[in-house]
Amino acid sequence: MAKLHVSTTINGEPQEFLCDADQSLLDVLRGPLGLTGSKEGCGSGDCGACTVTVNGRIVCSCLMLAAEAEGQQIGTIEGMAEGDHLHPLQQKFLEMAALQCGICTPGVLMAAKALLERNPDPTEHEVRFWLAGNLCRCTGYDKIIRAVMETAADMRGAAR
Amino acid sequence: MSTQDSNPANDNKWIGQRTIRPDGADKVTGRAAYAADTTMPGMIWGKVLRSPHPHARIRSIDTSKAEKLPGVKAVVTAKDIVDFPLDKSVMLGIQDMRWMCRNVMAREKALFAGHPVAAVAATSEKIAAEACALIKVDYEILPFVIDVEEAMKPDAPILHDFIKFDGKPSNIAGRLEHKLGDVEAGFAKADVVVERSFRTKPVHQGYIEPHACLVSVTADGKATIWSSSQGQFMVRAMCAYLTGVPQNDIRAIPAEIGGGFGGKTIIYLEPLALMLAKKSGRPVKMVMTRTEVFHASGPTSGSYSKVKIGATKDGRIVAAQGTYCLQAGALPGSPIRGAAGCSFSPYDIPNVLSVGYDVVSNRSKVAAYRAPGAPIGAYAVECVMDEVAEALKMDPLQFRLKNAAKQGTKAAHGPVYPRIGFVETIEQAIAHPHYKAPVAKGKNGLLYGRGVASGFWFNAGGESSAQVNIAEDGTVVVITGHPDIGGSRASTANITAELLGIDYRKVSVLIGDTSVIGFSNLTGGSRVTYASAMVVTQSTERVIGQLKERAAKIWKIDPDAVVWENGEARPAGDNAGKFEPLTLAQLAAQASATGGPIGAGQQLNTTGAEGGFATHICDVEVDTGLGIVRVLRYTSFQDVGRAIHPSYVEGQMQGGVAQGIGWALSEEYIYDKNGKLDNPSFLDYRMPVSSDLPMLDSVIIEVPNPKHPQGVRGVGEVPLVPPLAAVSNAVYNALGRRFYSLPMSPPKVLAALSTAQAAE
User: Fold this and answer.
1) Residues A121 and A67 in one domain
2) Are residues B638 and B727 in the same domain?
3) Which of A49, A79, A109 is the last residue of a domain?
4) Contact B20 A128 (CB under 8 A)
5) Which one is predicted more confidently, B715 or B577?
6) Are B257 and B106 in contact (CB under 8 A)?
């Protein structure tokens, strides 16, 4: 079967690729595009390690067909820092040790960033339910939740 | 997250600081390379064909059609893996190669649904999967048994003819006993005796990264393995045993590891990929699906336990007896040492009999899971402790305090304790605001309760190697040999910087592959920070010795007249002469002229890792309408000896608690009537998500281990030991009725509540 040609935007850069009709976006990101920061933990949309943004909305890239990226704006963990300048969430995760093994971290960060873009002042309850689609087996979530809330507070302070 | 520091002189600059981990930036930007992130030119894909039957004799395997499929480059079966005859044990660490060779590829029989029977390498994953479907396996289907109690019955289907118990073929593959005093005489003195039985389900370690590897073999037989494991040296040795390639021809490169919790202390894919790569002449990548991880990689045992504790009216435990029957899965090796050896160890009990049975059954072979076996034993013991305390009308923490093991106590599992910090964990729990806060009053079908429990883990030393090298600009590179699973690089940087008296950011910490650093045992058993701190300390001390010699040479004085302080060599006193101090950078710049490169390594089989203890407090809410148990507040108190990096110590404590809450409330392997796992996905195997949990407060207690240069004891295992009972005791406190099996999942809680209602 012939490959499909897809034109899309990834982390602000125009990108073209060929894919099979049944290939997931995650497969294409990790394979031909070499963007291995998105992880495959389950392949069934249950763990969130492959979380990317599509036009600003968080999506499990393992559940999205690569062909569906046509004309969309895709954001991945590789686009979160600006050059050598980490996003405040990334910096806070380091300072507060909100990661251990790090395999869930890219997905958690992508989801948390999308949350703060929508809700700059989330309650703990809101952070916990927003991140409920991102499994972490190492941390018990405590430091992740604290880091997201502290980042939100910092960013609100900076915006003032 | 309070930190109590009982160290008298704490003027450390970096030890105990919450520094930024050396591998952090890579891990928050997606650059860190885990096993599945590595590729090679010419790489092809391997896939495993797995048995659909829980128990079947393999009459024949026909791979001819698969081999002819275009794109298929190699097929392997058990014939390609070194056979270890059943009558002779060959041990590698705690693993018996007789079982490992049969676990990575079925030989005589398929022993569980999901057991590998063949593997294929092809130019794409799709073709490899198609080829697997073309392999014809002729199975003779045999009766199977999953449950541990069923497997111990005299008429149970027997998995292995060569396993005999009491002279007869049996599924009981081993028995372990710890005995102290005379339990019968002890129980005769007791005023209160409580005996109960408990059951737990198999639970999976639940690491988010599936097993993965990439293996390349050159035409002259040299293999390179990139894989995610808890020990690259384990990968090298096991692959050498199972493929016949000498260890010097295997270079095992540790990829970043996406969680292990014990589950990556053995191999599954690596020897298959190695043989596929060897046969095909192409690099082979293999990645498990999540379904495969659940079906075929090691959960921990399901269990049946019976525990009896007797105490006198004044609250002294006089005798304790425990029997722990653990599912090993298809091949022997369940963690009975942890179950039988840890469960009574927090207490000073004169008469103890603790027995473990290792029982095979038709499910995947268990792998280590955080304090292997100890949570299962502690679940039974700590629930009975709760009942005895209640019968004695004693506060459960005061009851534990009264019986707590301390320095000089003879533990049931053997040793006489040196200075330990168990009492401190209970005292701090009693004094903590959490324990003093009132438990909420139940209303509108919501009931509230509080439970406590304690736990013990041996901790571990073992072999470790380190190399400390000074670069020409005075910065430092440290190489150790254990995969960093949760921040151990950060601890290494803190220690090295402290000893050298330099900023921790001037220390880079790398994990060496098997060809660049000396042998280092697994990352596991709570040993890494303990053991690596010892070799890193000794290596750094040697480097400091060299630096002093170099300064002495420059100053033309005796090396003994030089001291190392705050990152500088100084004359020891006025008698030594008057010289301007020489910094590490200055000495490094002159290294070539003063004797050559500065650096040192150390390799040790470390000992002296003393036991770790914890006490936990848990508050729950039980929704009697929905059967849902929610943990509302949780505080853990643990003696860690010394927290080299408090954040990652707390992280270990919090992570272990979360896993324990999952084990207690929602996680379980569910088998269908055909002996096949019914819930092999994260949707149906329900691990805690962030909305299930509260903040997990962790109180670090530091009673330094006198046998360690920094006082470290080990952290990672103990946090998973108390939660099963802490949650169970809290649920009992809320409902006034006790569950004797886990998980306390909503259907089970609802069913129990409706039975109770019917009885009323």
Assistant:
1) no
2) yes
3) A79
4) no
5) B715
6) no
Predicted pLDDT at B10: 60
Q: Do residues B649 and B713 both lie within one domain?
A: yes
Are residues B451 and B467 both part of a single domain? no
CATH number of the domain to which B731 belongs: 3.30.365.10
Same domain for B756 and B636?
yes
Q: How many CB pairs under 8 A join A and B?
A: 182
**DSSP labels, B464-477:** EEEEEEE-TTS-EE
Put simply, the answer to whether B654 touches A36 (Cβ < 8 Å) is no
Q: Are strands B223-227 and B168-169 parallel, antiparallel or unpaired?
A: unpaired
Catalytic (active site) residue B717: yes
Check residue B726 and give its pLDDT: 98
Q: Identify the pLDDT of residue B6.
A: 42
> Mind telling me how many Å the CA of A63 is from chain B's nearest CA?
14
Buried/exposed code over B539-551 (b: 16+ C-beta within 10 A; e: otherwise): bbbbbbebbbbbb
CATH number, residue A34: 3.10.20.30
Is the pLDDT at B94 greater than 90, yes or no? no
Dist CA B711 CA B7 (whole Å): 9
CB B515 within 8 A of CB B559: no
Query: What's the CATH number where A144 sits?
Result: 1.10.150.120
Q: Summarize chain A as % helix, strand, coil (round to 5).
A: 40, 20, 40
ipTM: 0.98
| Nearest partner of B485 among B23, B4, B9, judged by Cα | B23
Choose one of B559, B581, B606: the last residue of a domain: B606
- Structural domain that includes position B624: 418-457+610-760
Instruction: Please tell me the total count of domains within chain B.
Output: 2
Residue numbers in A near B257 (CB within 8 A): 101
Residues B446 and B474 in one domain: no
**Number of Cβ atoms within 10 Å of the Cβ of B470:** 22
Of A37, A81, A141, the CB nearest to B690: A141
Candidates B18, B28, B207, partner chain A, best to mutate (most A CBs within 10 A) = B28
Q: How many domains does chain A have?
A: 2
Q: Are strands B56-62 and B136-141 parallel, antiparallel or unpaired?
A: antiparallel
pTM over 0.90: yes
Residues B456-477: tens digit of each pLDDT: 999 999 999 999 999 999 999 9
**Residue B320 belongs to some domain of the structure:** no
Give the C-alpha separation, B251 to B594, whole Å: 35
Contact assessment for residue B237 and residue B265, using Cβ atoms and an 8 Å cutoff: no
**Has residue B680 been placed in a domain?**
yes
Cα(A90)–Cα(A77) distance, integer angstroms: 10
How many Å apart are CA B354 and CA B316, to the nearest integer? Answer: 19
- Tell me: do B739 and B683 sit in the same domain: yes
Please, what is the average pLDDT of chain B? 96
Helices B232-243, B270-280: axis angle to 10 degrees equals 60
**Across B120-129, average pLDDT:** 97
Reported as a single tens digit per residue, the pLDDT across B685-706 is: 999 999 999 999 999 999 999 9
Chain A positions in Cβ-Cβ contact with residue B689 (cut-off 8 Å): 131-135
Let me know: does B202 contact B668? Beta carbons within 8 Å.
Answer: yes
Residue A117 DSSP symbol: H
Are B465 and B557 contained in the same domain? Answer: yes
Task: Give the mean pLDDT of B155-173.
Answer: 96
The boundaries of the domain holding residue A153 are 88-159
Domain's final residue, options B606, B637, B652? B606
DSSP letter for each residue of B493-509: HHHHHHHHTS-GGGEEE
pLDDT digits 0-9 by tens, A10-22: 999 999 999 999 9
Which residues of chain A make contact with B37, given a CB cutoff of 8 A? 30, 36
* Range scoring the smallest mean pLDDT among A46-55, B390-399, B747-756: B747-756
The residue among A79, A99, A127 that closes a domain is A79
Same-domain pairing of B674 and B729: yes
